[in-house]
Amino acid sequence: MLRYLKLYTAFLRTCLMREMESRYSFIVGCIVILFFPILPLLLVGAIYSQVSSLGGWTLYQYMVLLGTFHIINGLIFTLFFNNMFEIPEMVRKGQMDFFLLKPVNSQFMLSMRSVAFREFAQVIPGIVMLVYGLLNLSVTIEWWQWLGYLLFIASGTVVAYAIWFISVLPVIWWVKMDSPELFLTIFDVARYHPNMFNGGLKFALTYILPVGIAVAAPADLLLGRLGWEAAIGSLLAAAVLLFISNRFWRFAQTRYYGASS
Amino acid sequence: MVGQETVLKKPKLNQLWHRYWTLCKVSFQERMEYRWNTFYYMLMAVVPALVAIYLWGVVFSTGRSNESVSQITTYYLVASFIGWRIADFHWLIMWDIREGRLANYLLRPMSYPAATFWYEAGGRSWSTVQTLPIFVVMAILLGDNFKAPANPLNWLLTLIAFLVAWVLNFFITASLGLITIWQNQPEGFFALYSFGARCLGGVLVPISLMPGGFGEWLQWLPFAYIFSLPVRIFQGLPADKILQGFTVQTFWLLLSILFFRWVWRKAMFRHESYEGGGMR
Description:
The complex is a heterodimer of chains A (261) and B (280).
Chain A: H1 2-21, H2 23-38, H3 41-50, E1 53-54, E2 57-58, H4 59-93, H5 96-101, H6 106-112, H7 123-137, H8 143-168, H9 171-174, H10 182-187, H11 200-208, H12 211-222, H13 228-254
Antiparallel strand pairs in A: 1-2
Helix pairs in contact in A: 4-7, 4-8, 4-12, 8-12, 8-13
Chain B: H1 2-8, H2 13-33, H3 35-62, H4 69-85, H5 90-98, H6 101-106, H7 112-142, H8 152-177, H9 187-200, H10 214-218, H11 223-234, H12 239-270
Helix pairs in contact in B: 2-7, 3-4, 3-7, 4-7, 4-11, 5-8, 8-11, 8-12, 11-12
């Protein structure tokens, strides 16, 4: 464990040095990234100009959910974006051989070695939306709720990572994949609470691709809406999906053949 | 000397067509080679359309609105399809510049912008052929909630508006792509353009539903004439509004062509190639 911690610290240091090579580009990049969570507020404005509550969520309650979504989104972009985008390219060029031969867990190497620090800027508008929503709701939040919130943010990030990793792995069979961001399109649905929908979409967001509950659980906890079944379900989903991602990766490795080195 | 004159002779129109049509076919064949990849790509178009339709279904079932469910459903299905089919060229041009491929094109007897245009047109045609049946099935499943125009003229005008929008977006995004010559890491700007243009163009929210009179202001920008105009024509825009739409779209097209020519000239003065990365 300590070895992996040391390795990850080394990754962080290298990535930070690389980002700081071009400070101007880093700062401009951060400013540009701030706009990504802001533009979809147009949709929020359009929806709440039509209705006062969407599936039982008022505007300020929804801002808490949206803020949470952007915090998790910012985290997965920072921690995994570069890594997931590089996997298809590595398969196509046969560069994955290098990772498989290293004396470290290959899933860890593939998923964690690159950190996109500038993407963390997405978290800032998320926090602003969260605080804005909470202040307007005038709710009192206990310290244990904040602790639980952080725990569910972590489990939500793990759920998102596991599904993203699983969705990229078919490239080992297909060789080419232009859209490793398919997961991001799916994850984007998590900006809405599963309860806002009915029928098939609610079922899919809860049980098949539980990105919905991954984001909803922390927001629900702060708003005092989280039931114990959903709380356990959310944590369990993180553990099970992480396990499945590892098993799928092991299976995918047996089908991998290096195209070149 | 005679040989050089032969090389410099202006090619005939049919020769030009043959040249670029070949590129179009190459791109078409490349996409066919990796069919699963295209299938995955296609899912990315379908998921947002489905979610938007579901979401607005909930909004209209719980609130009051001037727009009917069928109008909004039709809007989102067509807007998602169009938003997905209109190609952004800045990414392609960025990689061509970064990896030194632009220099290779400049040395060949073909126009780089035209080659890029036809290459992408070929690829998009193939993925459109693949995506269209899914959207048709979705439209059938939506039943009465999807209203297609009965008049063939509406279909024709929609197609024309879509093709002009395609060319307009080509000139805008190609100009944007050339920024790579000055700024080596423009990915952030490029991603923001692709996302922002669709948000402000009416793919994320219909312009008529945008809050606080924001929609009125957006009518002055080109994005509404790239993503929104073809959908509005499809939904039966009145004749005078169609004429107005085409006029503004043509204005933006001419302006974008002039702007692209200016940027291209400046870029060619500035361009330095460090390595030759072969062809695309």
